[in-house]
Amino acid sequence: xxxxxxxxxxxxxxxxxxxxxxxxxxxxxxxxxxxxxxxxxxxxxxxxxxxxxxxxxxxxxxxxxxxxxxxxxxxxxxxxxxxxxxxxxxxxxxxxxxxxxxxxxxxxxxxxxxxxxxxxxxxxxxxxxxxx
Length: 132
Description:
By secondary structure, the protein is mainly alpha-helical. 86% of the residues lie in helices and 0% in strands. The protein starts with a helix and ends with a helix.
């Protein structure tokens, strides 16, 4: 939801307009992403890597490594595009970098939904309730 709203703001942005609403929504998305990652760490990765199911543990380790890379990419992006003034200075570069990062996030979410979460659900049916 936050990513969709951010995409809409970026699509509606016009040259010379203040990108402050974009910067605010970006901060909201980043905060939600950090929270989600912390929940995954606590309720999914730890449980799956500790399970006796070797395939599930290996899957969790692989996803965890990959997520570390994406999380680092987000951290770098947020440092680079740290204010609306920076965004306004080179909006085209911001938009390009954001779209690449959002595409990577979309891919990650699809993979989690198709592969990781079904395994977690099968082994720990109540993990999502605990994470809520």
